[in-house]
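tl;dr need the bound structure. longer version: we got a ligand (protoporphyrin IX containing FE) that a collaborator sent over and nobodys looked at where it sits. i said id run it. heres the input, straight from their email, havent touched it
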Amino acid sequence: MSDESKRHFTGDARLIAESLACIRGGRVVFDGLDFEVAAGEALIVTGRNGAGKSSLLRQIAGLVEVAGGRIALDGGDPELTLPEQTHYVGHLDALKSAMSVRETALFWSGYFGGGDIGEALAELDLDDLAELPVAYLSAGQKRRLALTRLLLAPRPVWLLDEPTVALDKASVARLVALMETHLARGGIIIVATHQDLGLANARSLVLGTPQGGRADVSESAPA
Amino acid sequence: MSDESKRHFTGDARLIAESLACIRGGRVVFDGLDFEVAAGEALIVTGRNGAGKSSLLRQIAGLVEVAGGRIALDGGDPELTLPEQTHYVGHLDALKSAMSVRETALFWSGYFGGGDIGEALAELDLDDLAELPVAYLSAGQKRRLALTRLLLAPRPVWLLDEPTVALDKASVARLVALMETHLARGGIIIVATHQDLGLANARSLVLGTPQGGRADVSESAPA
Amino acid sequence: MAGMSELTASQRFQAFANPARFMALSDRLLPFCTGATALLLAAGLYLSLFASPPDYQQGETVRIMYIHVPSAWLAMFGYMVMAGASAVALVFRHPLADIGAKSAAPIGAAFTFLALVTGSLWGRPMWGTWWVWDARLTSMLILLFLYLGYMALWATIEEPVRAGRAAAVLALVGSINVPIIHYSVVWWNTLHQPASVFRIDGPAIATSMLMPLLIMALGFTLFFMTLLLVRMRAEILRRRVRVLRLARTEG
Amino acid sequence: MMRAFQILLVRDTKLAIRVGGGAGMAVFFFLTVIAIVPLGIGPNLKLLANIAPGMLWVALLLSALLTLDRLFQADYEDGSLDLLMTGALPLELVAAAKALSHWLTTGLPLVVAAPLLGLLLNLETSAFGPLVLAMLIGTPALSFLGAIGAALTVSIRRGGLLASLLVIPFYIPVLIFGVAAAGGGGVSAVPGAGGQSLLLLGAVALVSLVLGPVAAAAALRANLR
Amino acid sequence: MMRAFQILLVRDTKLAIRVGGGAGMAVFFFLTVIAIVPLGIGPNLKLLANIAPGMLWVALLLSALLTLDRLFQADYEDGSLDLLMTGALPLELVAAAKALSHWLTTGLPLVVAAPLLGLLLNLETSAFGPLVLAMLIGTPALSFLGAIGAALTVSIRRGGLLASLLVIPFYIPVLIFGVAAAGGGGVSAVPGAGGQSLLLLGAVALVSLVLGPVAAAAALRANLR
Ligand code: HEM
Ligand SMILES: Nc1ncnc2c1ncn2[C@@H]1O[C@H](COP(=O)(O)OP(=O)(O)OP(=O)(O)O)[C@@H](O)[C@H]1O
Ligand SMILES: Nc1ncnc2c1ncn2[C@@H]1O[C@H](COP(=O)(O)OP(=O)(O)OP(=O)(O)O)[C@@H](O)[C@H]1O
Ligand SMILES: [Mg+2]
Ligand SMILES: [Mg+2]
């Protein structure tokens, strides 16, 4: 399995959003949103608080209703729905305090049909903590455990909602390296963040310009 | 009340920790920790994930047991306990989704014996959202609402645990300005963060050097 | 950097997990306790089952008394030990008190269960039923529930310090029930026997039956103590292992 | 300090009404439990009237138990409890305010609705007076004693069953005296059915008003993270 | 897919045992409820034996109701449910796995413990067989129907009472046929006490096994944030 998780994703997949709209709590958050992300590319979603970054990511993961337009993974696995091809790491860590770190990883690996967990835990420097109950973890350690899900089963699209929250500097660097690897393998990453991650192959999408729901997409290549 | 909230705190208060120790879940997190923060000073607590930053802040707020040593506010109000003189903003936002933004602010203001809420909401750019239920807020908006508590009643010690999480850049700038004002009034701030805030009058405390629980305090003045 | 005069937290923590003096003391005490328990129980059983006379009213069934009454006493005694230790644990934060309270609970619960069962067995011939909902029996059932609740609380809260304090609060609040059990026969007119040993005007029970009863009671008490020591030692060892394991996972 | 108490009381009551449905929900729940009993034990009217006070009290206990987790758990999980503890209001009074709010939204509405429910159970009209009086005195004890169990299990997610288990032993005296005071069967041995039981119930209630908040505060402190 | 089902089942059961105390706790709770009833309605043995099956069933319903929030709410609140939905396992099967785990940790232990509890209530020994059979068939229905209520109220913090209210109507057929099949009084109109009621109970249980997960999944989707 851990070999398979190193395989490349189909190189021609593209995540396409066409005049996407989102309505939450009766208010239009954004609408007419168009973007495309190709395999090996990251889309960095920025914008002020409440602009709709989290809403967009949850729409892609199938967790918020698409109020208009469409979103699809062209060239992805036709047998699977879009949410089944995504890893979503949101504001909530989805951890159970009564389970140990190892049990948590084992569960998600099994549920997502993945393989060995040892490597994933090591990648996020959690192997020393493997036997500890989640209740004992600090905020950043919890976050790292949530992030191991990305490595437990291979899925082409990563949806990361402020993934660096609570991480120390070393962990941020580690996460960025993992993201680069995923991109190099032909994966797609959509990340909402307020922090500059310095990814090489990234476009950026700015949501919620003051005027209203309109959004801009621009090509960019930060250092 | 809002006049009173602008008053200066007694200028000679000092937060003093002497050979402070912390044990959590049966493990020693840190021990023999000494530091002093004078009125008008900020202490920036850094360190890798799990170093004990949150634990230290919770100890000061009286929410985690002090396993050894002591911590006290010299020159503070002798009628009040240390926790009663602190504002704690932790990883959890302490918000109720069924209450509106205004109700939340009113409740905490009343409970802490504070005054008018209008100004506090305006300071954190929440006045437009005042009538919205908390359930409708985005992560950053929730965080800002949690931060308004700092302004609702005057308390000399602010304990901020990664206060910038989920905040957009404008909000971070606003928060830093609020912190500067608090310091200028003779307040004390202890902030745990992985991000550089650029406060003028700040010392720094690095927790959890690899060797073990020992900790270093050093004077520093970041740009 | 550490305060010179004080213990460091890790030293204090070692002391916490390692009540060496108790271990040494209990190690020497245990053989005597075990021996005395065996002797007293053997003598008590012989006296109560063979040497004492059958009751003129109850016949041979009266022999249940020699088990029933001491277990009922120890059920209550056990709770008092537990509550007392809990109070010490809450006020003085002494780790041994914590361990003592935790270790006493299952023993007390077992004696409560024994009292309920023997009482029930005795009730069948005496009252014509296994169980009635009178005040003595009900308050005794509550005692069992309190014991079980106490143990459940320990079992569900993962962290020993937190679990110990929460359980101590519960034990103290529940201690109200003990006087209720004792005085239930006075305050309400129940089917159950009124007190006949611990009375202001002396025991109202024949010496031929009182002697074996007292010996059995003493034997049961020593048995309780022996079990308590064994369980406390086991708990201390378990905590040591836990500390070692935690110490191994990351500094 | 009294202001903080009152503000907390109002906020908790408001939240209980918005989130849990409040008074109406409690009565409605009570009604369904009462309606279920005849289904379980058969529609014999004599029998029903006989056990009506007992059933009403058992239903009272249950609606109290089912709502116990509302007391502290939500506040613990979202961090509000941390902040309530840094306020000037002593933790004992915080617990008291919460228990009082629990009573206002579960116990009190049931007391008001009790005669109606007694009708459903074929209770004699003459029994209504003592029943309502007993409930009025006894239900606060349910909320205040319940606070202890809720506080003990606050750090356990979904500690519902455990909290019930811890609390039920303390509820038993309330149940016994409550039923006896309401003129029901109850433990046969309780003497002087009405008056004395009512006094005892009052005593239990008074003790619980003090014991509940004090023990609950101690339990909350024990559960500090 | 069956592997994911099994893994989820094991995880939920493990969590129920660790966090909620699991089987032992359920039995213990059941015991206390059964112990409470005689206190409420008096120690008349004849009467008790008469209503014993009814009381057992009512206690069953209650322990199911008290644990319903364990089904989806914790997973909803900590974000796990979001991730379970992005897995390959259809949401219906997720709901089924959770309901099954709920039954394993609440219904099943009670079935096993039922004879002991019958003893406490002075039930005739001959009635034990039908009682246990009826419980074995009826309790899964409680968990699977309960899943609907739990799913409907998942986004409401502390929706305990509301979920109970929603679910109780569905529980009523189970209760009626269950009591009748166990040989208790029950609603007199049910004919041919034993056999036929058992058949009807089985039918209800079968329907609920399908209806529960499907309706629960639909309700969860409706509660998407
Ligand atoms: C399940 C049923 C029973 C329970 C739970 C029970 C419980 C107790 C308890 C708790 C005590 C100790 C009271 C104290 O020292 O304050 C006790 C003592 C005693 N019980 Fe029982 N009992 C039961 C049945 C019976 C029966 C059927 C008999 C015989 C008729 C009986 C005869 C006695 C006697 C003679 C004492 C000693 C009284 C004294 O000296 O204080 N018990 N029982
Ligand atoms: N509730 C708890 N129970 C037991 N141990 C805990 C608990 N919370 C934290 N710990 C342990 O205490 C240590 C310090 O945790 P703390 O949360 O203070 O770290 P931190 O410096 O704030 O880390 P982060 O940067 O991740 O927020 C960690 O090793 C952690 O495992
Ligand atoms: N559960 C909800 N119900 C109703 N409205 C919501 C909900 N969650 C968010 N909203 C609204 O949708 C808008 C977008 O929220 P979203 O969480 O997507 O913002 P965001 O860009 O992620 O902000 P942040 O940077 O603060 O995380 C906000 O205006 C918010 O008020
Ligand atoms: Mg967001
Ligand atoms: Mg932290």
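gonna send this back to them w/ a short note. Chain C has one domain: 31-195+207-250.
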